[in-house]
């Protein structure tokens, strides 16, 4: 019995020594027990109370879900509109087609903005008051040359023969709404003007502008494509579109 009690006392003493070795003396243990607030004299800020479930002040879940539902309904209604062959829905289908196919009037909006606020949009090049006053009101010549194919032949534009590597210039200021390759016209640039009209420059050897560039009258939009029959000559396509119809460029421009 005494031996067992002695063994217990030894184990207790051993644990006490291990605890003292690990945590130090009782005075040191009291020092470790001091809180940060007691040690530094002010409360310590922690972020434990923040959770991922808290709502962001700029994000409204209900509004987001409502917008998603409205978007889905709009897509569904449009799909039903075009899948249903009913003749009574034809006006609605025609309205949707015209809305989706109609070009946004960048140039007209730019002109309205400038009149209302006195400054052009940030992504457009700035113009001085003198430049605005002296801006030409008539179409300039894109490139001098000889008309090879008249408007009456294709009903859209004209094919003009000019010198090899001739620069093709904008006939009026506006916004580039297309710069790339079009079927039948090859490399093409389309500029939208403030009055809603468009000037088309096709069959280009190279393009010198980018999409949504603002171009001044006379700015180079590209070079004419070298003729396959005569290396000293080049040919480019030019057209003017007003609304949904093309007009004869010869009525407003003299190429020769």
From TrEMBL:
Residues 1-23 have a biased composition (Basic residues). Residues 1-27 are annotated as: Disordered. This is Peptidase M23. Pfam families: Peptidase_M23 (PF01551). InterPro entries: Cell_wall_metabolism_enzyme (IPR050570), Dup_hybrid_motif (IPR011055), M23ase_b-sheet_dom (IPR016047). The keyword Hydrolase does not apply. It comes from the Bacteria. CDD domains: M23_peptidase (cd12797). The chain crosses the membrane at residues 64-82. Keywords: Membrane, Transmembrane, Transmembrane helix. GO terms for molecular function: metalloendopeptidase activity.
